[in-house]
């Protein structure tokens, strides 16, 4: 199998609606460029402890959703609802890191769990900080819930999440989604914020032109 020449690391948080809204654009990018581009999702906690979480009933969230989230969701044909809670997201990131280790047993486990967590939070206010809620989601995908329960209890993937966070800081990424492009393993630029697919396509096409 040919190794992808371009890697796109997507630093995202499960409590960020713009990260969820970027998912179909990234799917389109992979479909357009095939094996040339590898999209890798990375952890980024917007509000790690002890930073306070946002008030789900506060003006900031309601204003942001009315001004930006709902219009973008309509534009991209997605259904999002302002969640009734604003949980910590670290455990959800750890669950995603665990899912990547299940790919040999259940191909597509990583993508399936990520999609289910995003959808669960932004459509049903899933409590991302509740390990049992995460286990239940995994079980609906026919993943090993007990294995995930043990991994979360033992913090087996916490260091992996911290490494992603540190990488984002070193790249100067302060908001999500943060998109880091690499060409043949060499850093090739960063974009921040939800990008339209035409902008993603253009970024990749410029890198492909540089390869010729």
From TrEMBL:
<feature type="domain" description="DSBA-like thioredoxin">
    <location>
        <begin position="7"/>
        <end position="196"/>
    </location>
</feature>
<protein>
    <submittedName>
        <fullName>Putative DsbA family dithiol-disulfide isomerase</fullName>
    </submittedName>
</protein>
<dbReference type="InterPro" id="IPR001853">
    <property type="entry name" value="DSBA-like_thioredoxin_dom"/>
</dbReference>
<dbReference type="GO" id="GO:0016853">
    <property type="term" value="F:isomerase activity"/>
</dbReference>
<keyword id="KW-0413">Isomerase</keyword>
<dbReference type="Pfam" id="PF01323">
    <property type="entry name" value="DSBA"/>
</dbReference>
<dbReference type="GO" id="GO:0016491">
    <property type="term" value="F:oxidoreductase activity"/>
</dbReference>
<dbReference type="InterPro" id="IPR036249">
    <property type="entry name" value="Thioredoxin-like_sf"/>
</dbReference>
């Amino acid at each position: 199998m040919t190794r992808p020449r371009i890697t796109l690391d997507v630093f995202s948080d499960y409590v960020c609606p713009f990260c969820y809204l970027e998912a179909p654009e990234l799917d389109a990018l992979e479909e357009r460029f095939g094996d040339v581009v590898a999209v890798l999702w990375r952890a980024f906690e917007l509000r790690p402890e002890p930073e306070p979480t946002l008030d789900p009933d506060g003006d900031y969230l309601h204003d942001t959703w009315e001004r930006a989230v709902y219009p973008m969701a309509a534009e991209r044909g997605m259904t999002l609802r302002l969640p009734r809670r604003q949980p910590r997201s670290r455990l959800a990131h750890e669950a995603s890191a665990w899912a990547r280790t299940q790919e040999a047993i259940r191909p597509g486990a990583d993508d399936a769990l990520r999609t289910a967590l995003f959808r669960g939070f932004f459509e049903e206010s899933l409590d991302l900080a509740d390990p049992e809620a995460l286990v239940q989601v995994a079980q609906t995908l026919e993943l090993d819930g007990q294995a995930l329960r043990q991994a979360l209890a033992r913090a087996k993937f916490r260091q992996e999440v911290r490494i992603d966070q540190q990488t984002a800081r070193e790249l100067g990424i302060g908001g999500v989604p943060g998109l880091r492009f690499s060409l043949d393993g060499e850093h090739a630029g960063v974009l921040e914020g939800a990008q339209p697919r035409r902008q993603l396509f253009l970024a990749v096409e410029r890198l492909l032109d540089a390869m010729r």
